[in-house]
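Entry 12.
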Amino acid sequence: MKNTLRFSGIVVLILEAISVGWMGYNVFAFGAIRQHAPLSQLLGTYVAIGYLVACLFHIVAFVTLFLMFQATKKMTTFRVITLIIGIISFITIMGELGALNDIGDCLQAGMPCTPEWNLLYFAFLPHGLFQILLAILMVTFLRQIPHESRSNGTSKDETIFAIVHLIGACCGLLGLGFTVLIFLSPVKVQTLKWIIFPYCSFILLPYGLILLYWLVAKRKEKRSDWYDEKQWQDINKAGMVAMIVSIPVMTLLFGLTYVLPNNPGVIMWFPAYLFSLLLVFSGGTLYYSRK
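Predicted 3D structure (tokens):
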């Protein structure tokens, strides 16, 4: 495990260095594209490649953080903050890709696109903050690996149990926030049909990764041994609350689509339901687990 953590941490630092360099390139490329430089299309192609590298960096970083949590059984405030900022940074990439697509359309039509440019520059904030926090965490952790111990003992996978639901609550909250923004924006229903699947998939990816990691770790255990007695109780309570909350949520969404048939709610009712349910269930499980 120590060798795996050390290798994973080094890979993260290498990818992070590449991502930081690409962020510097993006600052230059955005300025050139905004000024309609002759090589704008070529510059934009390398910007797109940079976002692929950023996605890979975030995914590897998440996996490394999961390994760290399981190996040390420690859920410190600094590590949790780093993870949450990382999720925000990752989901921000989705908004940036949408902004770049709009900018391309605006440039071809000769129209201004100031809000989209502002979004791209604002996105440097969560990206930069995540990279700083992750670099501090990785360097500190790599130095302490020989001294880390798994004997800090918590009950049956309590740390991973909490991390799964923490990530679920974060993804649910962020997804619900984006859904509300789409409800309030003048996006055509036809356009939503093309973006709804990648939009939901991108936001849910961090949650899917930790679930996959957890299932792989549990593959040799009996299903009845996946949780201890209190964890089963916490999940059942949160599930009951989520079911109760889902009734008014679905009633509200039905009312919106009934009164306003051309409203984005015709398409966005499922993401709204999915993310609100995920937020209530994961948030509720965390709440009951702390009692």
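Annotation: The first helix runs from residue 2 to 34. The two ends are 32 Å apart (CA to CA).
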